[in-house]
Write a structure and sequence with these properties.
Length: 564
């Protein structure tokens, strides 16, 4: 991480302070806690950059913890892909781990411990079983301005609570019939403090533990326990959890009383939570629930559709891990919600690919050009990347018939159109100077063939008399070029905020032109491309080869966007 101002954000200062105060026992430990109920998206990538980035900066560990405390909708497929995507982003979890894999944890492996802690709370008179219905519970809890009403079960003796809690665990009751609540403060202005539910009944199989449990801990109870038992020092999450922080601290206090805090370097590790603003992007939606809906209704062709804001979608689109990390770095970490422009992400992608992508010539909307006075064929060698001397070169052939992009020709040129037009000279990249003499059209008026001649003394591309030729065009030799298919992507939604009318309506704002398939021709070297390889199609854009052999446009070559 560099020393720029954006990286000296409040979280970093907070951790620096704790390290200096000796609170970490010699090691900063953070965690990234995804719920394996979907694929991770660019918002998670930001959290990953913060969680792993801070651990890296302080020479500590970042745990990867599958936060699998909610049995429905979780799966190993999701968990495996989350791991794959984090690794692809360039981060490595480290630390002890709860099984064979260093740094890796499953929250569900702590269910026994969490259950035991819940019983401890009951014994200490700090939790009770409650059988209010959800509606009653909400009504009793009340509003922040006025104290809530205590549950009739609030003062039940511990023995009875223990009996009921065990019956809950043993499957005696239906979902929602009973729950376990922490006994805190029904008058607190923070309603999360008004005897929150910490365990609930869910008769649902867990993807790892099957039917072992039918009671599951709530997030607010589970998360501080997970952090504490793993020895996490700094637990960073998004702003919506700020109001839950007193509850987090309450649970940590109870763990401290129970002697359950981990010791490191002679220091008792008290995990602390801090919050930062989520990453929001315009022209897309980011909640896993909505992304899943798009996958299930086949609005997109899977979680890794190149239009998706998921990490795997961005990978298939050709985005690089470095550009995603740079983007997260540039938007920075703050305490105020804001929206980021996907154009900044694309700018980061372009900056990197300009330096690294292999150059190829491809014509995606081809029209034929016949060089009337050209005989035979000649070989050309061009650099694979003019910005990288070590990148090597590739060879291609120039012949009498070539393809150029339809947009590079105008029969009656506009002012300042320096590309191909009758009577006008252009340079054919790496080959020669060409002068157009005219074109042939079909009955509908569409240009089907362009004719012209080359300046036989201009081989390589420059005129011997030094006359200037303004336009340089890319082209593909018709005899040796290979067919290519490409998909041109635009944003998935045409509306800046697709959720402006609520989550029922967001699909109304899909961009009908978010993908367009085209086919054309490319220089022969492109035939050797492997899936995942990235290219700059000269003058056209950055593309990545997909698994079906087509090329996905990652980003266009230029954009007016400039980062602030
Ligand atoms: P979603 O709402 O998209 O389903 P989530 O918050 O439920 O996401 P989790 O798997 O629970 O997803 O999140 C794992 C971590 O990623 C959490 O710490 C969460 O705060 C963080 N995170 C999720 N979305 C964003 C975002 N848009 N920006 C920054 N961090 C995020
Ligand atoms: Mg979640």
């Amino acid at each position: 991480m560099n020393e720029s101002d954006t990286s000296r954000h409040f979280l970093r200062q907070w951790i620096e302070g704790d390290v200096a105060a000796g609170k970490t026992g010699g090691k900063v430990v953070t965690r990234f806690p995804p719920e394996p109920n979907g694929y991770i998206h660019i918002g998670h990538a930001k959290a990953i950059c913060v969680d792993f980035g801070m651990a890296e900066l302080f020479g500590g560990d970042c745990h990867l913890r599958m936060d699998d405390t909610n049995p429905a909708k979780e799966s190993d497929e999701y968990a495996e892909n989350i791991k794959k995507d984090i690794s692809w982003l360039g981060f490595k979890w480290s630390g002890e781990g709860d099984g064979k894999e260093p740094g890796f944890y499953n929250a569900s492996n702590m269910f026994d411990k969490m259950y035991e802690i819940a019983e401890n709370l009951i014994r200490a008179g700090q939790a009770y079983c409650c059988n209010l219905t959800q509606e009653e519970w909400k009504a009793y809890r009340g509003v922040p301005e006025k104290p809530g009403v205590p549950s009739p079960r609030r003062d039940t003796p511990p023995e009875e609570n223990l009996r009921i809690f065990r019956e809950m665990r043993d499957g005696k009751y239906a979902d929602g019939e009973w729950c376990l609540r922490a006994k805190i403060d029904m008058a607190s202005p923070n309603i999360h403090f008004r005897d929150p539910v910490i365990y609930r009944i869910r008769h649902v199989s867990h993807y790892h533990l099957g039917d072992k449990w039918c009671v599951y801990p709530m997030y607010d109870f589970a998360h501080p326990i997970e952090d504490a038992l793993e020895g996490v020092t700094h637990s960073m999450c998004t702003l919506e959890f700020e109001v839950h922080r007193p509850l987090y601290d309450w649970v940590v206090d109870r763990l401290d009383e129970m002697g359950l805090l981990v010791e490191r370097g002679g220091v008792k590790i008290r995990p602390q939570q801090r919050e930062f603003a989520r990453l929001n992007l315009t022209h897309t939606v980011m909640s896993k629930r909505l992304l899943l809906q798009m996958v299930q209704t086949k609005v997109v062709d899977g979680w890794d559709d190149p239009r998706m804001p998921t990490v795997c979608g961005m990978r298939r689109r050709g985005f690089t891990p470095g550009a995603i990390r740079e983007f997260c770095e540039r938007i920075g970490v703050s305490k105020t919600e804001s929206e980021s422009d996907p154009a900044l992400l694309e700018w980061c992608v372009r900056e990197e690919l300009n330096k690294t992508a292999t150059r190829r010539m491809a014509v995606l909307d081809p029209v034929k050009v016949v060089v009337d006075n050209f005989v035979g064929s000649r070989e050309i060698e061009l650099p694979d990347n003019p910005l990288d001397e070590g990148a090597g070169t590739r060879k291609m052939v120039f012949g009498r018939e070539i393809w150029i992009d339809r947009a590079d020709f105008m029969e009656i040129p506009e002012k300042k159109f320096f590309r191909m037009a009758p009577g006008q000279e252009v340079r054919l990249r790496g080959a020669c100077i060409f002068k157009c003499t005219g074109c042939i059209k079909d009955e509908s008026g569409k240009v089907v063939e362009i004719h012209g001649t080359w300046d036989e003394q201009s081989w390589g591309g420059n005129a011997v008399d030094g006359r200037k030729v303004k336009g340089t065009l890319h082209w593909v030799d018709a005899a040796t070029g290979v067919p290519v298919k490409a998909r041109l992507y635009e944003s998935l939604f045409s509306e800046k905020n697709p959720l402006k009318d609520g989550p029922e309506k967001f699909l109304d704002y899909l961009n009908p032109g978010s993908v367009r398939e085209v086919s054309g021709f490319a220089e022969p070297a492109l035939a050797d491309a492997k899936p995942g390889e990235r290219f700059q199609f000269e003058r056209t854009g950055y593309f990545v080869k997909d698994r079906d052999g087509a090329f996905n446009r990652t980003v266009t070559l230029k954009d007016s966007y400039k980062p602030a």
